[in-house]
Structures are given as structure tokens and as C-alpha cells.
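Sample pair:
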Amino acid sequence: MIQAIESLLQFDRAGDPQSGLKWTHRTTEKIAVELRELDIHISANTVARILRQLDYRLRANQKRLARRSAPDRDEQFRYIAELRQRFEAQDQPIVSIDTKKKELIGNFKNPGRAWSKEPIAVNDHDFRADAVGRAAPYGIYDPRANCGSLYIGSSHDTPEFAVDNLERWWLEDGTVRYPNATELLILADGGGSNGHRPHAFKYWLQERLCDKHFLVVTVAHYPRGTSKWNPIEHRMFSEISKNWAGHPLDTFEILANHASRTTTTTGLRVRARVVDRAYEKGLRITKAQLTALDIEHHDTQPARNYTIYPRT
């Protein structure tokens, strides 16, 4: 019987020559059917037991293969570290920003498990038409204070939305936590509403933060494919996901409540609020508006690192 199974798998066998592990793409049910044609009548469970005896194992895909690194990636990481050290030494604020995964609001299944006497019944399909809305949770994390703010948008995730949230954070937390601050360092991903390509992100930073609040704003963007190194990802977003895992996000307010209750043993605190304002997609920034920006691109990777000054 064992020889028959090995014979069936000889052209459909894969493995790791270093560890000696083997696997096959055929299911135990298919192997059992083919064995019956050889007048060997065993069940799929028996096939599975024999496969384990032959050192076959069930395996899942694992995300281990990294993309080819950009040649200037390490340089940008070193430069970001230098900027952070300088701002900390001068007692100037640093924030890490990003948009968390968008969530359908309604009685939908939320991945994860939660302690309860009975499972919560949710819709059997995640149809967008059944949703109350779609939340765009925009996060701002202060690594020095280990505090975060989550602004839950019910509209589009645009550069204007991103900068408006930065202004909200500055008025609610920044001015209180850093009353003598004259500069702000922003750590952001390379794409999305706060990416290094959208001109609108730079324009609204000039209008809403620099000019309005007399702040010198320095922005450093992480290279493509390295967003996991952005502090907000592993210090704040991961903890929020754990906190609401297994709970349906029926309303925007429930989402905000789950996020607000997020804490860690290291002292993380999160404040969340819903932003009801509607933001328009596709707003264009004119050449005249771009020319009027008081922006200085750094010598090190100027596309990713720049400082915007207040216009008097």
C-alpha cells in the first residue's frame, strides 16, 4: 500500500532538499480514489495517516521572500534615524502617520476571535451595498509620548484629509504636549494620501500647518515596500487590530470605541474620533500654487526628504 502511494506521487512530489520535508499538491480524497482503481480500498483519513508516516506535511504559504531592495533603501533608513535623533535632542515633536486598512461598517465578519458565551451572528456575505459606510482610519502616532490618535473618515482618503488630521492632532495634542515647538518631523509611507508623489499633500501642509500655525515641517518618506518599519504600523495599528478582532464593526462609533480602548503594557494610549466631513477626490494643484510653496528639498534623496517653511 505504501509503495502504491509513493508510485502515485512520483510525478507530483515536491520538497525541500535541506530539511527533507516533502509535500504533494494532490488531496487525500483524490489519492484514495486512484488507489481504488488499483483495487486498494482505503479512506482519505487512512491516506493522510500514511502520508504522515512518509514525512509529508500540510503546509501553508509563508511570506518570507522580500522584494529586491532598492539600492538607496539603507541610506534613507540611516537618514531617518539621524533626523529623529536631531529632533529628539532639540525637544521637537515627531509623528508617524499612515492610513490603516479601510473597513466596511456594518454587521460583517471581523477576523479574529473574542471571548463570549455564543458566537455573534453576522451577514453571510460582505456586500458593499449592505454597509453603513466605509471607514478610512487615519492614524497619527507620537513615538516619544507613546500616544496615538485615530481619525475615522467616512469619506475619501485624500491628501487634504491627511493634512486636516495632522492639523487636528496639532491643535488637540501637539500644542499641549510640545508648547515650545517650532518644528515638526513627519514620518510617512512613500505612497497613499501622504505619499511623496502627490503635490496636494505638500500644498495642504503649506496652507494648513506651516502658514496657519507658523510651523517648520520636515517630511521623510519610507522607501517603497518598507511601510512595516514605519513606527505606527507595529506600535499602534497592530494593537488596534488585536483590540477589535472578532467584534463586528456595526457603526463608526463602535469602531472608534474599540480603538479608544486600545492599551499596552508599555503604556500606549489611543484617542479616536469620527470625522464626518466629505472630501472630494481628484483635486488638482496648479503650477502657480506649486511655485508658491516655500519648500526645500534635502541633499539626501530630495524626492523623499523635504522641509516646508511658513510664508510670511
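The CA atoms of residues 154 and 276 lie 6 Å apart.
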